[in-house]
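WARN retry 2 of 3 for item q-0093 after timeout on previous attempt; input resubmitted unchanged.
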Amino acid sequence: MLKYKCTLAAAGGRLMLMPKKSPTTSDYTAASIQVLEGLEPVRKRPGMYIGSTDQKGLHHLIWEIADNSVDEALAGFAKHIWVTLHKNGHVSIQDDGRGIPVDIHPKAKVSALELTMTKLHAGGKFSESAYKVSGGLHGVGASVTNALSDYMRVEVRRDNKVYFQEYEKGIPKKPVEITKSPKSLLMTSAGTFTTFHPDPSMFTTIEFDPKTIEGSIRNRAYLIAGLHFYFTNELTGITKQFYFESGIKSLVVHMNRDKKTLHPPIHLKKTIDHTEVETAIQYNDGFAENVESFVNVIDTVDGGTHVTGFRMALTRAINDYAKKLGALKDGENGLTGEDMREGLTAIVYVKMPTQTIQFESQTKAKLNNPEVQGFVNTVVKEGLDTYFEENPSDAKRIMEKVMLAARARLAARAAKDAVLRKGALDGMTLPGKLADCQSRNPEESELFVVEGDSAGGSAKNGRDRRFQAILPLFGKVLNTERARIDQIVQSDKFKNLIVAVGAGIGEQLNYDKLRYHRIIIMADADVDGSHIKCLYITFFYRHLRPIVENGHLYIAMPPLYKVEIAKHSYYVFSDEERDKILADHQGQKFSIQRYKGLGEMNAEELWSTTMNPAKRLLKQITIEDAALADHVFNMLMGDEVPPRKKFITTHAKTATLDI
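OK item q-0093 returned
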C-alpha cells in the first residue's frame, strides 16, 4: 500500500563526530577484536538480519516464525496455521505440524528446542531429510525473532506432552520443561505455538499493522493451495480465514479484480532437476505491469534470475507467435520486453531444495541462482508455445495488446528523445520556470513542485537558494493512469517536471541522474489541492517509481489556520491543534484565518511554516505493499467506474469534507 509517512526533514546539514585523538597502530591490538557470542550479533546489528528496525523490520519478526510453520505445510505435515495479534502487543503463531524436536542434541548437550531458539544457523533447514523445500535459508529466523523480543514463549506438542521454554531478549529463563497448563490457543495433537513481544529498545515502533499482516497471510495462502490460514485481530475481535484451492491462479484473478482482462489466467507448472517452476499469467487492458515473484513462499521483491528467465521466455514466445502469423515481417525489429509489460499481471513461483538456494542476503529479496533462469525460461517458453497453439483467440488478443504497445513505443520515441536530449541526459536547457538551487549535490538539494503561479512566486522569494529549487506548475495535470508515455512527455507540465528532475523516463530512466533527493509536492489544502497531489503521486508511482521506492517523494504540509491571540500568531495544522490553542487561552480575544490556498501566505510566512527544514512538517510517500498500491491507483484513477463508485460509497462517512 502507498502510505504517507510523517517526518521532520532536515536539509543540507551534516553532523560529524571527531575522535578525541588520532588512532595509532598501538591502539589496534588483539584486545580490539570483539567476539560476539550467541545472539549478541543480532542485537548489535539487527538490520543485517531483518533489513531495518522500522515497521517493515518489525513485521519481519512475524514471518521468521510463521514461515517455519509454512515449511511444515510444504513438507506435508501442517494443514492449519493460526496467527493472532493480541491486545497487549504480543503476536502468537501456532501450527498443527510435527513440533520442534525437544530431545537433547548429541553435540550441544541441550534441548534441540533451546538450540533452535538461541543459536544462529541452527535448525532443520540444513538437513534435506527434514525439509526438502523451505522458506528458511540460514537457519537464523526463529533465533533472530527471539533475540529482538523482550519476551518469548515457545510450546511444543509432541508425544502427548507439552514442552515449553521462555526467553528474555534471547536468553532462556529456565531449561525446557513439561507443562500441564499450556498457554497455546488451540489443543492440537501436535505442533508448535510461539508468542513474542518485540523489544521496544530495538525498534522505532512496536505497533503492528493488521493490514500488512493480513496481506502477507493472504499471499502465503495463495502460494500453498489447500493450506488453511487464520488471522485473529483481538483489537477488533475479528477472525479471517484464508484458503485457496487454485493457488496462484486465484492470486492473479485477485490482482486483476478491478480490471478488464483479455483472457483467462494461463497456468504453467513443471519440475526440472528438483526445481518446480509455476507461473500464472493474465493480461488486462491497462498500461501498468504487476509481476510478483516468490521462492519457496519467500516474496523476492527485487526479483532475480527466475524473473529474468520469465521475461526472456515471454518475449520470445510472443515474438515467435507474431512471426508465425505474419504480424512481424522479415527484417523487421521484434517486439521488446517493454512492449510485453503493458497490462501484464503475472506470478513467478519457484520451489527448490533449500540447500541449493542462493539469496542475496538474509532478507531474501533477490534470487541469484543462475541455473534457475534457464529452468524458468524453458518451462514458460514451452508452455506458452503450447497454449498459443491450443488457444488461438487468447493468443491473438495478447498479441494485439503487445503490438499496440509496440506502436505506441515507436510513436513516443521521438517525443521522449526530444525531451530527454534537451534536458536531463545531456544537462542542457532546464525549464524556464525552474528557479534552480545553487547546490549540485543531489543529497542536499530539494525541488518544490508548486501548484499555482502566485504560490510559486512566494516560494521563490521565501526559499533558501542554496539547496531549494522551485518549479511552479499551474492547474491540474494529466491523469497518467489513463495516458500513454508519449502523451505524458508531450504535456508541457510533465515535460518541464521530467527535465527538472533529471532522471529521464521510460526505458531511458536513469536513477543515478536524479538531481534532487527530496521532491516535494506543494498544493493548496483543499479538495482541488488534494486532487492535484493525487495526480502527481500517480505520475511518480507509475513512471518514476524508483524515486518513490527510495523515499525521495514528499508532500508539503502547509498550515490550515493562523490563530492570533494577544499579538501572538500560531500556525496550526489541524482542527484539534486549533481547539487546543484556543482552550489554552480561554477568555482572550482571538482571530482565526483559514488558509484555503498557498497564495494567501506571503514569502516569509510560506518559508517559516512550510519550507523551513527546522520547522516544517513533511509527509513522505512510501510503498509498503506494491500490489495493494497498484490496486488502489487503478481503482481511483483508472477507467472502470463501478469499483470507484463502490469505494466512494463505502468510505463516504470517513471522508474529511472541505465545506
